[in-house]
Design brief:
Strand order of the largest sheet: 2-1-3-4-5
Mean pLDDT: 83
Structural class: alpha/beta
Largest sheet: 5 strands, parallel
Low-confidence stretches: none
Strand content: 15-25%
Length: 221
């Protein structure tokens, strides 16, 4: 899962940038390092990372300012603040501003950084999985509604065919069968129905059956 995530490491101290970046890269993450907050914003607009690890003070702006800027840019980018133990208030404010976790300097065990990023990545992965499952559920429900509608339409048509066959079987002559068919069609379609018969000798079409009483039409070629 790690190789699917891009992590930006941002700090004014290059030693921390290199240490954290190399450790995450060795664990399988794709990393990019920055020292200026403006550069991070520009890069995030073009190629948004999944996670940003940042210090409290950067070149050009504070970590808190960058967190607020990134949060306005995208709610999906996860951020982890790196702060000294004496900067507890700043770390707490960073969490309130939109960071999801904190790492304290000096870093005693670099595996703690990887573990922290793993937690964030796993949470983001689960959120994405849940979102995909929800989309599939919505699509499935739409599909079920369409299938039900189609079933109802086919069942209605089947009932219509059964009624037609019943009328045909009970009819004693062709004219009676046609008259029954016209009435059933008019009811099924919800419209007026006319049945025309072609008379070769007269070269005319004659309306011999109609769902409208008294309506008969003769039309020429």
């Amino acid at each position: 899962m790690r190789h699917d995530f891009t992590v930006y490491v941002v700090d004014s101290e290059t030693s921390y940038c290199d240490l954290v970046s190399d450790s995450l890269k060795g664990a399988g993450y794709h990393t990019e390092t920055y020292m200026k907050g403006e550069d991070v914003l520009a890069a995030s607009k073009k190629h948004p990372p999944h996670i940003i690890i940042l210090g409290t003070y950067l070149l050009g702006m504070t970590g808190l300012h960058l967190i607020r800027q990134i949060r306005e840019l995208s709610p999906d980018i996860q951020m982890v603040i790196m702060a000294n133990y004496a900067e507890g208030d700043i770390a707490s404010e960073a969490l309130s501003a939109g960071a999801v976790d904190r790492i304290y300097k000096p870093i005693q065990n670099i595996t703690d950084v990887v573990t922290a990023v793993d937690r964030v990545a796993e949470r983001r992965f689960l959120e994405s999985s849940n979102e995909e499952l929800y989309r599939q559920l919505v699509a499935s429900r739409k599909g079920q509604r369409k299938l039900r509608q189609r079933f109802l339409e086919e069942r209605s048509f089947l009932t219509y065919l059964q009624t037609v066959l019943s009328v045909m079987e009970e009819a004693k002559e062709v004219s009676q069968a046609i008259d029954g068919l016209v009435k059933i069609l008019a009811e099924y379609l919800g419209t007026k129905v006319l049945f025309f018969r072609y008379i070769p000798i007269q070269d005319n079409l004659i309306c011999t059956h109609s769902s409208v009483p008294g309506l008969y039409i003769v039309t020429g070629k």
